[in-house]
C-alpha cells in the first residue's frame, strides 16, 4: 500500500547518487528519470490495494489515491518546466528534480496520513525540500530572502502545529484520527478544541490561507518561477486533503466548532486575496494573492463537513492546479533579450507578437475570474453549492463579492495585452517548446476541454470523497 512512497524514496536516493557521482552533466538524465519515477509512482497509486498499514498510521483509500495521483503528476510537470528554465539560465543542477521527488514522498504521506505523527513527518519531509527550492538561486539576494522567510515562518508554523498536536494527544490520549474522533464524541472539552485550533493554524500556513499568508507574496516574487509553479500546486493539494482528513476523520462530531474557524479563515482569505492583489504590478506576486483567495474558496468545501463538500474541494483544486500551471508556463515562455517578463505592463502589445499566447492567457484569466463556462466557473460552482447546501450561504455570498473585486486585476492583464501599446520595440524571444505547449494545453483545458472533462472528473471526485471516514 505504501509502494508509491517507498518507490519515490528509494528512487530519489538512487538519483541523488547518480548525480553525485557523475556531476552536473547528468542533470538532463536525472530530470528525465525523475519524471519517469513520478509516473511509476502514479501508476502504483492508482493500481495498488486499499486499506490501512503500519497500525493505521497510513491510509490508502480513494481520497488518498486521487490526491496522490494529482500530486505526483503536478510534480512531474514542475520538473519538466524547471529543467528547460534552469538550463536556459545556466543554473541547472541535478538537485532540483531530486528535491521535488523527495518532497513528493512527504506530500504522499500527507495525503495518506492516519495519525498526528505521520501527519507531522509528511509535512516536514516536503517542507524541508521546499525551503531549499525557494532559495535555489543562491546568487540572488531576492531568492535567498524568500528562502529565509519561508524557512523562519515555516519553523514557526511547525511549532504551532506541534503544540496543537500535543494538546490533542494530551487530552485524547491517542495520536490516531479514529481514536481521537471516538474520544471527541464523548468528551468535546475546551482543551481538545484549543488543540484543534492550533493544529488548523499550522495547517493553514501550509496552504497560505490568511492570516497565515505572510510568506506567500515574498516567496512567490523571489523564488524561481518553476519552483513557484510547484508551490502553487502539489503542496496545496496535499495540505488541503490533509486538512479534510484531520477535521472530518478526527473531529467530525465537533464540526460546529471547527467549521467556524475554517469559515473565518476563508473570509479573511477572501479579503486579503481580493484587495491585496489590486495594487500588485509583479505578475508572480499577483498570483500569490490570487492563490490566497482561491484557497479561501477551497476551504469553503471543507467547512461544509460533508462528502459533497470534500468532492467540491477536490474538483476545485484539480481545476485550480491546471489553471496555475497554465499561468506559470506562459510566464516561463515570455522573455525579452533573455530577461523574463514579470510586470503586468510588460505584456503590452502581446496580441501582435504572440497572438496564440495572448488568447491562452486571456482564457486562463477569464477562468480565474469565474466566467462561465470556463473551468474556474465550475470550480467555484461546486464549492459555493456545497457551502450553500451546508447552510453557509452567507460565506458563499462573501466569496462571490471577493470574485468581483479580484476580477479587476485579472481583467487588467487582458486589457494590457489587447489594448495597450507596447512600451518597447524589442520583440519577445522565441518561446521554449515545453513551456509554450503546457501553457496552451492548460488554456485549452480551461475551455473547451473542461466541458468534456467534467463528465469523468465528477465521478472520480465523488468516489474519492466517499473515502473520508475510512480511517
Give an overview in words.
Helix content is 76%, strand content 2%. It has 471 residues and is mainly alpha-helical. Strand 1 and strand 2 form a beta hairpin. Helix 1 packs antiparallel against helix 4 (95-111), helix 3 (62-88) packs antiparallel against helix 19 (433-465) and helix 14 (307-333) packs antiparallel against helix 17 (375-389). The longest helix has 33 residues, at 433-465. The chain is globular. The chain starts with a helix and ends in a 6-residue tail after the last helix. The mean pLDDT is 90.
Short description:
With 471 residues, the chain is mostly helical.
Strand order of the largest sheet: 1-2
Cα radius of gyration in angstroms: 21 Å
Distance between the termini: 14 Å
Low-confidence stretches: none
| CA-based shape | globular
Keywords:
471 residues; mainly alpha; two-stranded antiparallel sheet; 19 helices; 76% helix
Helix and strand topology:
Layout: H1 3-22, H2 27-47, E1 51-53, E2 58-60, H3 62-88, H4 95-111, H5 116-134, H6 141-172, H7 177-186, H8 190-206, H9 216-222, H10 225-231, H11 234-250, H12 255-276, H13 283-303, H14 307-333, E3 335-336, E4 339-340, H15 350-353, H16 355-369, H17 375-389, H18 393-419, H19 433-465
Helix pairs in contact: 1-2, 1-4, 2-3, 2-4, 3-4, 3-10, 3-11, 3-14, 3-19, 4-5, 4-11, 5-6, 6-8, 6-9, 7-11, 8-11, 8-12, 9-13, 10-14, 11-13, 11-14, 12-13, 12-18, 13-14, 13-17, 13-18, 14-16, 14-17, 14-19, 16-18, 16-19, 17-18
